[in-house]
Design goal:
Immunoglobulin-like, 134 residues, alpha+beta
Length: 134
């Protein structure tokens, strides 16, 4: 079967369009995604006798809740289940600043920053002391 010039040009155009699509496909994965909203303010306990504070709250289910002591750089995380609730134990002293956020895949949420309280009377109605959002 012989191809005429019209059939060859159509075939050439389709091959070129398909090649361009294959080249553009990986670029779609590099497009920026919308940032995730920060988590709600967690409950933060005073340090226990071992020097660990307990940080608990709720993030979207199936994400990883993360807390970092900004003074020491120590970091802890927990993959959440279907409820999204988490409880993290982080080595911290009274007055240390702690950042809390969550991660879904490679995308991080905004961070919430709280101060480790001296005792339970320092806790506000939403937990933490002197909380600020970043």
């Amino acid at each position: 079967m012989r191809m005429g010039p019209e059939t060859r040009s159509r075939r050439t155009w389709l091959c070129a369009a398909g090649g361009a699509l294959l080249l553009a496909l990986p670029m779609a994965c590099l497009s920026p995604t919308l940032p995730l909203p920060p988590p709600s303010r967690p409950d933060v306990s005073p340090p226990d006798a071992s020097g660990f504070t307990s940080i608990s709250g709720v993030v979207p289910s199936g994400t990883t809740a993360i807390a970092q002591n900004l003074e020491s750089g120590r970091l802890v995380g927990q993959v959440t289940g279907s409820t999204g609730s988490y409880t993290l134990k982080l080595e911290a002293a009274v007055g240390d600043q702690v950042a809390i956020w969550y991660q879904e895949g490679f995308t991080e949420s905004g961070k919430v920053q709280v101060e480790v309280p001296a005792d339970s009377s320092d806790l506000g109605p939403l937990g933490g002391a002197g909380s600020t959002e970043n």
